[in-house]
Amino acid sequence: MDALLANLPTLLVLARTGSLTAAAAELGVPRSTVSRRLARLEHDLDVVLAERNTRTFTLTGAGRRLAAEAGVLLANLQSISDSVRADAGQIRGRLRFAMPAGLGGASIGHVLGRLQRQYPAVEIEIVVTERRPNLVEERFDAIITTEAPPELPWMRRKLGEAHFIAVASPAYLAGRSPLTKPQDLAEHVVLSGPRGVEGLTTWPQLRGTSLLVRPWLATNDLPLLRLSALEGLGVALLPMHLVFQDLAANTLVRVLPEDIGATLEIIALFLPERARSPVLRAVFTDIARYNAERSTTRLTAPPRRGSARRETP
């Protein structure tokens, strides 16, 4: 049983990467070690978990099932371990988060500094990615996001809010036609998220329906949008936490403050088995408290536009 538990994490990496070589690179071990661990699992269970030859590697149905259920099992074991340590007065462990680029902004350093002072024995890993990872196979404790389709079978906890606003540099605005109403954006260079139908994208309005705009630059990289706005390339839609210091320094200014903007919830998605972890709960609580404190001192944010139902453990 000890060997089985020890080798299950390797199976999860194999399930995600679909390759002995890629799994070995991620785990930092020789390919032969990964192959040996897989063979040990198959020997202990007396079941073929993967079909492999010199060119291909594919998990069998039994291998895929074991990987899925092992991920849940390991998450549950981790939560139990966290609880036992907490009962002994120790908040320690390792947490692995995934989040999109730009969601943390300049404030992420403050959050991490606060967590390090509060929980010095908790190690944190943050993986920045634009795709939605698999919590089970990739062994993430949580995904931090603003997008959580209701069909996702994971638990949710609100950590804060992201206020999106329209900004531009004073240099860009100088000498250009005034921006007094949303329709004036048609006469300006727009920097925005990915294009949709017919090359257009939508910007949220504080009143009424969303506004269709045609961006000159379209990207899902929020830090790139910020840098482009700072370079005076155009008007960008960005979260306030990413440009807070730029606004204070007047290197960016807010435009159409009464018209363009939206508030999105920042939430954590995690497995139900991890809801029992006092380490995860403590970190979530401290992040939420920090965001609540920050909201009372930041620059005036746009009014809330709508709300979404969230489930909190």
UniProtKB/TrEMBL annotation:
Pfam families with a match to the protein in the record: HTH_1, LysR_substrate
Record domain HTH lysR-type: where: 1-60
Transcription found in the keyword field: yes
Entry keyword set: DNA-binding, Transcription, Transcription regulation
Signal peptide interval: none
CDD domains found in the cross-reference section: PBP2_CrgA_like
UniProt feature coiled coil, ranges: none
Listed PANTHER family: HTH-TYPE TRANSCRIPTIONAL ACTIVATOR TTDR-RELATED, HTH-TYPE TRANSCRIPTIONAL REGULATOR
Protein family: Belongs to the LysR transcriptional regulatory family.
Entry protein name: LysR family transcriptional regulator
